Amino acid sequence: MLRTVTATRYVTPLREGGSLPGLMEADDLGTYVVKYVGAGQGRKTLIAEIICAGIARALSLPVPELVLVDVDPLLGRSEPDEEVQDLLNSSAGLNLGMDFLPGALGFDPLAHQVDATLASTVLWFDALVGNVDRSWRNPNLLMWHRELWLIDHGATLVFHHAWPRAQSWITKPYDVNGHVLSEMATATVEPELSDEQIRSALDDVPDVWLTDEPGFDGPDALRAAYVQQLIGRRDR
Ligand SMILES: Nc1ncnc2c1ncn2[C@@H]1O[C@H](COP(=O)(O)OP(=O)(O)OP(=O)(O)O)[C@@H](O)[C@H]1O
Ligand SMILES: [Mg+2]
C-alpha cells in the first residue's frame, strides 16, 4: 500500500511537465511533485505511474517514493493562474505524489554514464511496460546524488485505453530506436519479476481509480486484467 498524506500548501506549478504537475508540501513535512487526477490525461496515467513504480522497485530500479496526496482545492486559492485553479478544483481528493528530489538534474546521455547492467535493465523494464517516453529528447530520467532515477511512467500500459483490444498489446514489439539508453544497454540481463510482484504493484492502486471501468465487475477484476496483461508480456 502507498502512504496517504494530506497536502498543506501548493508551492508552484512545474511548467516543464505537459500535465502541469505541481509542487506541494504535505502534512508529513515532505515535498512532492503532484500529478492531478483532474488533468487532461486523467486517472489512467496515474494508475500507470503506480504500477510501473511498483514493477521498477521489484526490479531494484531506482524510483522516487510515491504517495497518495489528499488535496483540498482551497489550497489553490492564492494561485493567480486560472489553469492551476481549474486543475485543483477538478482534483479534490486523492492525487499522486512523487517524492521531490531537490537539485536533481535531467539526465544527459552525453554527460552522464550509466552502468551497462542498469541501462539494460531499464530497457527491459521499458519494453515490458511499453514506455515510449524515454527518448533522447525527453528521457524522463534524473540524476540525483550521483544516481540515476526513473520518473514519469504515465504514458505506459496503453492497452488500458482500449480494453477490448488489450490482447494485441501483449505481443506488440518494442522499438528501442531512440531510447536514450539503447547504446549503453550492452549487457545481457534476465531480470526476475514474479507474478506476486506484479500483483503487489496492482495492490498499490487505490480502488477509487479502478471503479466504473466498462466491462469490469469492480476494482479487483480490473486489477486481475492488468496482472494478466503484464504476465503475458513478461512471458512472451
Ligand atoms: N520527483 C522529482 N524530483 C525532481 N524533479 C522532478 C520530479 N518529478 C518530475 N520532476 C521534474 O518535472 C518535470 C516534469 O515531470 P514529468 O515528466 O513527470 O511530468 P509530465 O507532465 O508527465 O511531463 P511530460 O509529459 O511533459 O514528459 C521533469 O522533467 C523533471 O524536470
Ligand atoms: Mg516527463
Explain how this protein is built.
The structure is a single chain. With 236 residues, the protein is of the alpha+beta class. The chain folds into 2 domains: 97 residues, no CATH class; 130 residues, no CATH class. 27% of the residues lie in helices and 19% in strands. The protein contains 5 helices and 8 strands. The protein has a 5-stranded mixed β-barrel. A hairpin with a 2-residue loop joins strand 7 and strand 8. Helix 1 runs antiparallel to helix 4 and helix 4 packs antiparallel against helix 5. The radius of gyration is 18 Å and the shape is globular. The two termini are 29 Å apart.
Question: How is this fold's topology laid out?
Answer:
Layout: E1 3-13, E2 22-26, E3 31-35, H1 43-58, E4 66-71, H2 82-89, E5 93-99, E6 105-106, H3 116-129, E7 141-144, E8 147-150, H4 195-203, H5 219-234
Parallel strand pairs: 1-4
Antiparallel strand pairs: 1-2, 2-3, 3-5, 4-5, 6-7, 7-8
Bound molecules: adenosine-5'-triphosphate (ATP) and magnesium ion (MG).
Proportion of residues in extended strands: 15-25%
Spell out the helices and strands N to C: EEEHEHEEHEEHH
Bound molecules: adenosine-5'-triphosphate, magnesium ion
Radius of gyration, in Å, reads: 18 Å
Major sheet description: 5 strands, mixed, barrel
The structural domain count equals: 2
Structural class: alpha+beta
Number of helices: 5
Helix content: 25-40%
Give the low-confidence spans: none
Shape: globular
Distance between the termini: 29 Å
E-strand count: 8
Q: Order of strands across the biggest sheet?
A: 1-2-3-5-4
Mean pLDDT: 96
